[in-house]
Design brief:
- With 178 residues, the protein is mainly alpha-helical.
- It contains nine helices and two strands.
- The chain has a two-stranded antiparallel ribbon with strand order 1-2.
């Protein structure tokens, strides 16, 4: 049973990377949501899970992941998330600092909310609180792969982002199977 789950998690990681553009074909955005809905093992929730996974993957990534990797945010991505994250400020010893002054931290916070948007509705369809909240781990996955790329691989470009898609797909699939 453990081997089946490990293979399913590997399959989920692969299909999330396909969803992210590993292969260029018209159905690449449909495979991961379909896989998640079937892997959940809840026949009554297949359609709801598919819709939640499909809609959740559609928008709001580039600026947040780019900021997490160090580029300065230049455009609005998801207005509601941007409004929340841009309004966060800290006051320490009389000095007020906005989160937007630190692009990596801003990207981490925004990506956590964006991940939560995606996983929450999948978890709602599956009636699973762990799946609902696992989206806050999305920036951890991308930050780890960014660190790995900077310190070990040293390839640059979109390598960290591509590896992040593999890792995030594995994490989301693991929570769905849990």
């Amino acid at each position: 049973m453990l081997i089946v789950k490990i293979l399913a998690i590997a399959g989920g990681a692969f299909l999330n990377r396909v969803r992210g553009g590993l292969f260029d074909f018209c159905g690449n955005k449909l495979l991961f949501p379909l896989f998640l809905s079937l892997a959940a093992g809840c026949p009554g929730a297949v359609l709801c899970t598919f819709i939640a996974a499909y809609v959740g993957q559609q928008f709001g990534w580039g600026t947040y992941i780019g900021a997490l990797y160090g580029s300065r945010p230049t455009q609005a991505e998801v207005p509601q998330i941007d409004e929340i994250v841009n309004s966060v400020k800290f006051t320490f010893k009389g000095k007020t600092v906005y989160l937007s002054e630190y692009p990596r931290v801003w990207g981490f916070a925004a990506l956590a909310l964006r991940g939560l948007m995606w996983s929450f509705f999948i978890g709602l369809a599956l009636q699973s609180v762990p799946v609902m909240v696992c989206g806050v781990l999305m920036p951890v996955c991308y930050a780890l792969t960014g660190f790995l790329d900077r310190m070990v691989i040293k390839k640059g470009g979109k390598t960290a982002w591509n590896l992040g898609e593999w890792l995030w797909g594995a994490v989301l699939t693991a929570f769905v199977l849990w």
